[in-house]
Design goal:
The protein is built from six helices and two strands, in the order H-H-E-E-H-H-H-H. The protein has 130 residues and is mainly alpha-helical. This is BROMI C-terminal Rab TBC-like domain-containing protein. InterPro entries: BROMI_C.
């Protein structure tokens, strides 16, 4: 619900700073192994927090962002996605389509926008709509 309903997300963010609470919980899940090396304790809660944080901070559909899984995998590396506890979020969650500045514009949309640039066409279109 937090991720799918913008009104709920805005309310929770405004009143409770839900993203900061989630980031702080992620920070508490870090095991300090040395001065420069930090390891996340990976469990079901940290995986779910990671998923929700990516979901509420990167807007878009499946072509614009990559959502990490919500479950641990079996094997040596149960969660190959990078965990984080501060902004900015890792770029690996952004789709290459989003990071590529040369987005190809839809032909129909381009044609429509070209029509709007001509004032006569725009006036005619507005009159047809009325």
């Amino acid at each position: 619900v937090v991720c799918c309903d913008l009104d709920t997300l805005l309310l929770l963010e405004a009143q409770y700073q839900v993203s900061e609470v989630l980031l702080n919980a992620q920070e508490e899940n870090i095991l300090e192994t040395s001065e420069s090396h930090r390891n996340f304790i990976i469990d079901g809660l940290s995986v779910e927090r990671n998923h929700v944080l990516v979901r509420i901070n990167f807007i878009g559909g499946p072509m614009e962002r990559i959502l990490p899984p919500r479950a641990l995998e079996k094997g040596d590396d149960p969660y190959p996605w990078p965990m984080f506890s501060s902004y900015p979020l890792p770029d690996c969650y952004l789709s290459e389509v989003t990071s590529n500045a040369d987005l190809k514009q839809d032909n129909d949309l381009g044609k429509l926008l070209l029509c709007f640039k001509m004032s006569d066409k725009q006036t005619e279109w507005i009159e047809n709509c009325r």
